Amino acid sequence: MPTDGAVDRGLLSPVSIGAADAVGDDVVLDALVAAEIALTRAWATLDVAPSAAAERVSDRLGWLGAGHPASGHGIDADDLAEAAVSGGNPVIPLVSRLRGLLDESDREWLHRGATSQDIVDSALMLVARRAGGRIIVELDVVDAALAGLAGTERDRVVVARTLGQHAVPTTMGMRVATWLVGVRRARGRLAVVLEQLPAQLGGAAGTLAAFVEHARAAHPADAEAAALRLVAAFADELDLAAPELPWHTVRWPITELGDALVQAVDALGVVGADIATLTRTEIGELAESSPGGSSAMPQKRNPVGAVLLRSAAMRAPQLGATLHSASALAVDERPDGAWHAEWSTLRELLRLALGAASTARALTAGLVIDGAAIERTLALSGGMLVAERLAIALAPHLGDDRARALLGRATDAADLERLLRAEPALAEVDIAALLDPGAYLGATGIMIDRVLDGGQQR
């Protein structure tokens, strides 16, 4: 029955709203059609298919150029989905429907020598390459926002927390720079993976046998070499990399792409997790510029952007694991079920990464720093926040064991300062300077500058 695309509009996955136009069924269908057109055009580059036939196929089926999905072919995605059940994949009914749109003289050049996996894998790589490009653009905007915030907040002293407890001083700039490094590294890895995504063209069992045979009439002396040139031409028509070998069961393009997407969502998840913590009512050091409300509690200002990033980060690793499970079970020359399990899994991972990157863009562009809340948090620990520094600085005056024993006796910041000032051996020591959290920031400034300078050189 027709679904009108309503199976999943994102009602239960708000983080991925807006991603359907990049990875939805209609987009996948257009990519499948583009792969079929690209193969016909590749045959024409070898002078096997007539150039005029390739142009007629391109025009009739909506070719938009290398690296683009097709458009205007008129195939209905709902109808194709129903028809795909009997054969287990959408290419089988797609080919018959596309041939029905072509002149009889041109039909033989469609899907010539290919197997369904060639078209599905190539189409998914085309979808991934384009969707991944959008993720890169979003991550670049996030990079710029975080870099700006890290620079602005470079020297603002805040409490660092380890295992949920106050630890030592750090700066807001250092915290943001840490987020930035994670996002930047994920962005770089994803960009490399996208550049390497290959087309798929192997024929029935990855031997190129049918392509060699079809090429023999036009290239009797080097049909095998012609078939290899066909693979390169096909990849070029789709603006994908030419594969070293058919990868019907060697699924590194899928798993490496999945890993890069998971890494990107992970990096954004760290940003969301930290922001969710720092926006808590009792902390309040950060706030989202557009917080969400509550259906029951009118006073609530929920950190919805951070929450959505966390939701994506909780789901993405399992999708990546599914891709690896499928890859590991890719037996024979085409797997029985493992290949099929990749399709929706990869698409959902692309969808999550797109949504997370878009959410992060809006979130990081509008973070609000509450300096008063930061000062209140610092005051909670007072000098206790620099106990590590005191243990080091007091050892020459008191000895290591005595210094640690003194620090261990302090019950709070006021008691610590009283104990220090009451110690005769510390009469000449500037206690106030030692207790200043802003004087115990290590090399944070230099490290932040290094991160920011590295971004300018990227």
TrEMBL record:
Q: Does the keyword Isomerase apply?
A: yes
Q: Does the record carry Lyase as a key word?
A: yes
Domain named Adenylosuccinate lyase C-terminal: which ranges?
382-452
EC code(s) of this entry: 5.5.1.2
Q: Which UniProt keywords apply?
A: Isomerase, Lyase
Q: What class of enzyme is it?
A: isomerase
Q: Which SMART domains match?
A: ADSL_C
The protein's GO terms of the molecular function aspect are: 3-carboxy-cis,cis-muconate cycloisomerase activity; lyase activity
The record, for SUPFAM superfamilies, names: L-aspartase-like (SSF48557)
Q: Which InterPro entries match?
A: AdenyloSucc_lyase_C, Fumarate_lyase_CS, Fumarate_lyase_fam, Fumarate_lyase_N, L-Aspartase-like
Instruction: Note one Pfam family from the annotation.
Output: Lyase_1
Protein family per UniProt: Belongs to the class-II fumarase/aspartase family.
Q: This chain belongs to which protein, by name?
A: 3-carboxy-cis,cis-muconate cycloisomerase
